[in-house]
Amino acid sequence: MTAPDTIVLVHGFWVTPRSWENWVTHYERRGFRVLAPAYPGFEVEVEALNADPTPIANVTVPAIIDHLTSVIKALPAPPIIIGHSAGGAFTQILLDHGLGAAGVALNSAPTEGVRVVPLSQLKSTFPVFKNPANRHKAVGLSFEEWRYAFTNTFSEEESRSLYERYHIPAAGSIVWGGVLANFQPGHQDTWVDYHNDDRAPLLFVSGSEDHIMPPAIQQSNAKHYKSNTVTEIEEYEGYAHLLPAQKGWEEIADHVLDWALEHAPK
């Protein structure tokens, strides 16, 4: 088997594939084919989704996974999958489904069964949970809420620039569903088989200053895996949730790609 030559980047909530713009260029310069698929209905620009968030309110996890699966299965060989935030949880699901040569979850949202809920996460997600009616809406963040949850280590000027360029509302139904999954019988949308020995190697990357998906969540998620396959976790000091846009991201991008290439089946 030859080394993977394609990278699939999976975005999280409150952003679109635009949030990967620097990573796409960076990896393409290294000679890789890079795909950053949008969730179904998110194929338009940030500005259009902010003007009409209907596609956001209507999207579901199964629809997202089905779409990403179709993108990956259309490739001639298994790619490296790198996901951020909710995209990290989706990366775990895709790997569990037998897709990908290796996976990286950056500041990942938890998969089903991870019950750690730090106070900073509660504060970060409060805009969604403060009103039960938000379960049926697309819920945006104010600039102050964005800065706390995503860019707490950034300057105010940089944080505002990224907010204006990247921010969109998130699907309240999925955010609520992620919490309720641990209290409902049966497997929910973010379930994975933590004992799957056939899953591709997986690296968790955690930013020490992440408020919305703090290190405790990454550590708990990684410890849930009991399979006889590679599962590792690394922490980067001083990094916030929007790690892919923080100064020094190039070093992390190169490291996680090198890790994935090293651990992908030869």
Question: Briefly, what is this?
Answer:
This protein has 266 residues and is α/β, with parallel strands linked by helices. Helices cover 40% and strands 13% of the residues.
β-sheet strand percentage: 5-15%
Helix content: 40-55%
Number of DSSP helical runs: 11
What is the CATH fold-level name? Rossmann fold
Question: In terms of per-residue confidence, which ranges show pLDDT below 50 for 5 or more consecutive residues?
Answer: none
Question: What does this entry look like structurally?
Answer:
The chain has 266 residues and is α/β, with parallel strands linked by helices. It is 40% helix and 13% strand. The protein has a single domain, classed as Alpha/Beta hydrolase fold, catalytic domain (Rossmann fold). Strands 2-1-3-4-7-8 form a six-stranded parallel sheet, with helices on both faces. Strands 5-6 form a two-stranded antiparallel ribbon. The chain is globular, with a radius of gyration of 17 Å. The mean pLDDT is 92.
